## 1
Amino acid sequence: MTFRPFASMFLILAAPIAVVATPAAAQLGQSEGYKFLQAIKDGKGDEVTKFLDKPGATVINTRDVTNGDGALHLVVRRQDSTYLNYLLARGADPNLKNNRGETALLIAANLGATDIVENLVKHGANVNLGNASGETALIRAVQR
């Protein structure tokens, strides 16, 4: 019977600790790639740089688990040339495909973002890569 009061006291004292520790535990469950893509989405340049400056960093071509988008897909959609240039200079793959088979070049062509298209091609984007439907950047550009 003396054990029960101790157990009750433990639960009372431990409950606030569990509440405080929960956000930290949730963050521990997120992968480096997820955090990197979130920093890209949120436009947090300092965090993006920290991820890429880590020795042996491999997050630059991380793909979102829900749709397969990589960092270049995200910055091309918002037509952010600054981030685009930075990511390309750091080695981002311009031919990375998402779950629909789209590359950043296909997205840029669909948006009519000529300067981004030129920049991606200059950095090695393959103009002949098609999406899941076989459409290439040229087809998308003509359809616009």
## 2
Amino acid sequence: MKTFFCSQDLWDIIEEGFTIPEDTSTLTAAQKKELKENKQKDSRALFVLQQAIDDTIFPRIIGATSAKQAWNTIQEEFEGSDGVCNVKLHSLRREFELLRMKESETIKDYYYRIKEIVSQMRAYGENILDKKNFEKILISIPQKYDAIATAIEQTKYLATLSVTQLMGSLEAYEQRLKRHEEDSVENVFQSKLKLLSQKECEGNKSRGEISRNKENSRSFSIIHQAKYPPCGICKKASHLEKDCWHHGKP
């Protein structure tokens, strides 16, 4: 980054900064011109720093009002002593190795987590190649991606496949899995709905049969009773007087 700033004649303004006088009315024309140029350089340098750093680092310099202030913040945060840098780098390496994609996580979100850690490692001087990111993604995604991961590993173009192409393939496969899951949920829902409908039909049929049986029983009773005139003894119409239970009894 220093090389770039030197090529743009901005390194001095970043490393040394410049002073803005409290009263500019006493400045000569040449001094005013120099002050204006320094302000322009400082603004350009600060803009480049803001654009160049990772999103995870940007919040730490968002309050900087000059390129020198932003640069000093970056140095204090990510350089420090060798001992501090080594400890932080070791911690980041371990975090990177243990990183695994969650079942509920999307491929895109997981890749963002990898990039975030890699950016911090690079800020501490670690040289992380894209190949390592590529391998990390393939070995740390969930089992449901095994089919696409195996297909990618066996392709003859594996050596030339970029991380961007890998992400495209994984995201396309992820969409297919999502569609299949949605179809499965819909099928289960339809099956349950059909089962409930069948049970309801069976219930209605059973209630209908019970109702018909009761009706038939009542009809039989009415028909049976209509065969006999009222009994002279008990007044019931279900039997002849000679067959009455009370016949011959006092």
## 3
Amino acid sequence: MPSTEDQEQEQESGPPVRRSAAPPGFDDPDSWRHNLTLDEVEEKDIGPVARGVEIPAMENSALRLLMLRDSLPDLDSAGHRELERWYIDGFAEAVMCGDGYYLKVCKSSSGIPVGLGGWTVDSSSPAKDPQGGQARRRARDDRHAAQYRRDWFPAAVKGERHRLISEMLKQERERIIGNLGHVCCVDYMAVHPLFQRRGVGSWLLQEICDYADVQGYPAYVLTPKPEAPFFTKFGFYNVTIFDSEVGSLVSMIRYPPAVLDG
């Protein structure tokens, strides 16, 4: 039960993230034996969630291989540790300094995180998310938020390729959502490999879609092509497919029911 202060803060910054009474998509009864819980990511969760979910989930992803193709063959153990630290610092910056909402799924018996979902509300207008992200609410009262800014790049990674591809992906995102007003952009969707295909990702994505529907926002995601059918189940459809040397990436958009019905 949130305190009065917490309730006032939520009312000031907009509606809280909706909580499902039961996770949709858990069609396999065996999944429930893990007694999973869903909650917001807090500062103390940054390391465990990044190390335990984000990094294992992205290990063989097409997007990671595309960004790091020229660097991975030459990475030694120290280089891999440096890259891991960079990922963790990037997640910390997103959670503590950005405008986003971040959710974790954990095993209730141990608190070990097994899933991560995160989104920001982007806009073609000067104002960003009018509701204010969960991180913005925290950082507003955090005088030390600047300590979470990631201002370094791993020396073992070839930065020029990473920069060029990052810019290409940014331009693709802006091209798709540029005239749509406020758009709920899926930035994080990761499930630990041992917990995949058990409904964890469906639970997280349903939360994101429900948030977008309540606000009346379209939703956007850029995902490797093999993962596109998962998003299609939630109403996303392909806008652009572009090929790379390590696989295809798909830009996908989803409109809220109010728009489709209108």
